[in-house]
Amino acid sequence: MYLNNSKQRVSRVLSGLLLAALVPVLLLAGCRKSGAKQNTVSDPAEAPYHITMAFLGAPMDDDAKVYAAINELTLRELNMTFEAAPLSLGDFVSTLNLMLSGGDNLDILPVYTPLAASYIYAGKIVDLADYIYDYGKDILRLVGEDVATSGSVNGFIFGVPSQKESASLSGIVMRKDIVDALGIDVSAIHTLDDLTPIFAKVKANYPDIDCLASKNAVSQWENYDTLSDRFGVLIDNGQSATVVNWYETADYKTKVNRAREWYKAGYIKLDAATSTDLETNLVMAGSLFAYFSYIKPGYLEQANAQCGREMVYAYIGTDDGKTLNNLSSSNVNFFNWGIAQNSKDKVKAMRFLNFAYSSPEFINLLNWGIEGEHYVFVDDGKKVIDYPPGINAANAKYGRNLGWHFPNQYIAYIWNGLPTDIWEQYKAFNDSALKSKAFGFLYDPSSVANELAALTGVQAEYAAALETGSVSDTEKTLKEFNDKLYAAGLQKVIDTKQAQLDAWWASR
After folding, report:
1. 388 burial class (0-12, 13-18, 19+ CB within 10 angstroms)?
2. What is the pTM of this model?
3. Are 106 and 125 within 8 A, CB to CB?
4. How many domains does the structure of the chain reveal?
5. Which of 5, 42, 418, 485 is most buried, by the most CB atoms less than 10 A from its CB?
């Protein structure tokens, strides 16, 4: 079964690349370069415009064939020729930065939101506020104006969010065979504390299996608005008006103390703080019982495929058992789609982006390839697809499976195994979420670049050990962690966020 990839895997790789790329550019930022319209809009009767689109994706055998089919489509519909510029995940940040800096032909690019401010201040991307209302009307209709314009820093709209499940609702995913064998009542799991007797039972009956192996036993539970980076957050599910230090809240202290109890009891993998193993691989290998994850509609089918076993899950709420589905600007704006300042015709680039959000044929070609060669329909309604006979994940020549990354997966075909109403479920999932009071706000970190670099180093030194229970004295280590955060400039970051947030609220 070939299912949607998890954004979490991509985020783990990007987090390792982000800081080195972000800080030098922000340090050079003195004032924002002009993003004013500079278009050479050609007459429709002239030669076709050549559109270049960058996106995440490794080379595939049938790239040329699929891109040729897309080219036929864009010529017919837009009088544009199409060029793809796939970027490998491992060097995505550096490659794209070179393209933007070197004057390469580039119109459409994916904007990883933590890098947005650096692109803005370096004058590398276009303010979509100048174009979206005139040339992006399908985007506004399909995405909704509040979401379509939420990728904004200081009023500069850097990109439109990909259409995906964006809300944050977490839980625990467990091996069904062990759950059944031990008679565990999944419906009775509501809080993290409910897991303690379950882990004790699993450990007693399966002593060679770890109950948990991840670093996210604490960070997974975002009952706050991260305000992009967790260095200053809005608690109470984003309903608070005051930016505070998450790492010195009572909630954080409770969670790291619980992690320590679990670690001492042998429930957490001994090297969890440093391990790079994927939890799904450990479950598949038979050495792990459970892991924490964001859980979205259709998630169970994905988990079964990734783990090679039947899995079950339970949503986990706050310590009082209240489960909330949260939505913040950071959730929605993970990868956005923007226009490069290198574009020779920003109006045509905006028209193409509008097309990318509204054309099922384009999205299906880019993501799944050509009907009959790379996929076939398995239902009479021609909504559900699977591999053609004799083709599978190992020998497929095309099939990117990056719906969450591409502009609008909600108009695309559904891979076999997912619910046939999965897109409606995603929309309902997002619509049911409690929006942070800061929804639509993304702060500008340019004035605190040095502090962020230092804070990230402190976080790397302490957070994983604390959050896996690997430290011998939690209270002492937590105090050291917070002392070093403040010494590294955390209060300046908090004050910067608060001032920008207050100004944003006042301007609404």
Report:
1. middle
2. 0.86
3. no
4. 1
5. 485
